[in-house]
Each structure stands twice: as structure tokens, then as C-alpha cells.
Amino acid sequence: MTIHQYDVKIRWIGNIGDGTKSYQSYTRDFLIENHNKPSICGSADPAYRGDPTKWNPEDLMVAAASACHKLWYLHLCAVNGVCIMDYVDHACGFMEDAHPEKRGHITHIILKPHVILQAKKSLDLAKQLHQQAHHECMIANSVNFPILCEPSFEVDK
Questions:
Q1: 62-82: per-residue pLDDT in tens?
Q2: Which end of the chain is more exposed for a tag (fewer CB within 10 A), N or C?
Q3: CA of residue 139 relative to chain centroid, distance
Q4: Which pTM does this prediction carry?
């Protein structure tokens, strides 16, 4: 068994003078940092006084699920002879914040990848490989909510 470690630094940069003296006295802004990688500017969801122009943890959760599925899918296509010319996912996550026991939780994510294939003959296998990609995805295997996949396909002209 191999253990992989992922190190990140989350740096709060929202002290605008009075720290957390009150709920309104600070911003929710932060940086995600890791050596040799560009920093990512983040904040809270705007509903929680966050900056709508910055990535929030909910965005990042949806992005992680989408990216992981895509990476597995492209790998499986490559090793199975399915040539993908383009892949764009319009993923969407849904959060409920009125649950009596859980203060805000993602209920599900829907991946909506649009895949452009090189050849129509590989369409059936291309559809099947989404199921296998879901099975292999580390993010899907790590969360306690469903991640659904609703792919669409097109053949390259």
C-alpha cells in the first residue's frame, strides 16, 4: 500500500484592522498555498459574507470532483482506444443549509461533461467508461454524497 500526502497552507488574509472583533469586522478572504504552485485566492460563499469573485470551499469541492472524474475518464479512454478530442464539464453542486443536524452540507454533485469523440464507432464504449471513471475517482470514493454524471457526446467534424 502506498500512502500519498498532499500538503497545502491556508492563509487567512481577511484581518482589516480589528481581527475577529465582530462578525462584520473581517473578510473571509484566504490564500491556498503550496510550494511551486500558484496561490489560489479564496473566500466564503457570498451568503456567508464572502467575496463572490473568489473561489469558495464549495466551488473547490465541485471542481475537485469534476477534475478527478475527468482525469480518470481521459485515462480510461486512452488505454481503451477511445480518442477524445475535447472535454468540457459544466459541473454543479447543491448545498443544503437547513438540515437540523448538519450546518450546511453538499447533498449531491452533477457532472455534465460534453465530450467530443474522434470517431462515432467508439461512442458506446465512451459512454461506458464514465461509469468506470466514477468507480475509480478518489474524490467520489471519499465523499458521503452522490456524484452523478450526465454526459453528452459529439463526433468531431
A1: 999 999 999 999 999 999 999
A2: N
A3: 9
A4: 0.91
